[in-house]
What does this fold into?
Amino acid sequence: MNSKQSRNAATSLVAAGTVLSGDITFCQELVIAGTVNGSVICKGQDDSVVKILAGGTFTGEINAPRVEIAGRVDANVTGTTSVSIDSSAEVSGVIRFFKLAVSPGAVITGELVTMTEEPESSLVQATK
It folds into this structure.
């Protein structure tokens, strides 16, 4: 089963030393070790993840199910499933999340906004 998952997994990488300006759309996993200025939008599944590694920097907007931050981020971040902020992270901006994990030592400047899930029953009623 793991070999099937590995063959189907798609990881996009912005390597250390790389500077990218513009919008990025990804499906499964986006790893940022370099510098990105722009927007990141996930078109994948609920387990898709954006990772900003220690040494990586991001400026702009992130919208993904899972967001893991260990580097420097100046952005509006939306993690529809979760946002995880490592001890080496420096984050500024508005962070929207369903679940949040912050390690001691992380620096956060900005606003933390908890999202609530809308019950499926009200969605069904609204579409009828």
In short: The longest strand covers residues 72-85. Residues 9-127 form one domain.
